Amino acid sequence: MDLPEHWDAASVTAAVDALDDLVLLTTAPERWATVSRVLDRIEAALDAGDLVELEDATIGLESLRESFRLIPIGSAPAAGIPARVLERRNELVHRLTGKPLPKGEHDDQRAR
After folding, report:
1. Of 40, 45, 17, 33, nearest in space to 76 by CA
2. From CA 104, how far away is CA 108, in angstroms rounded?
């Protein structure tokens, strides 16, 4: 994908790094919905060419990663990244980097 000219490599790299970290996370299943909302923001930033929103959403994703270390009492057992979230993550990385999407397989066996 051709990114807008005003987008700097550091911001794009930070977004890709935050997206890459998702495959390593485990958390309560209901908390993955929060990740999906942040992925919506990243997708909207890409659609609009909005670098500030991309940076804000990246910070949000990084903050979630830190908060996911704590599982609320009474939550379901921690689970790896759900298949749909992994698919969206792969699509966003592809849009940011131009790298091909995985062919019919998840790039991490922890996907659920």
Report:
1. 33
2. 12
Question: Is the residue at 107 inside a domain?
Answer: no
Q: What is the pTM of this model?
A: 0.81
Residue 84 lies in a domain: yes
Contacts (Cβ under 8 Å, ≥6 apart) of 15: 42, 54, 55, 57, 58, 61, 92, 96
Instruction: Classify residue 41: in a domain, yes or no.
Output: yes
Each residue's pLDDT tens digit, 73-94: 777 777 889 999 999 999 999 9
Number of domains in the chain: 1
For 35, the domain range is 9-97
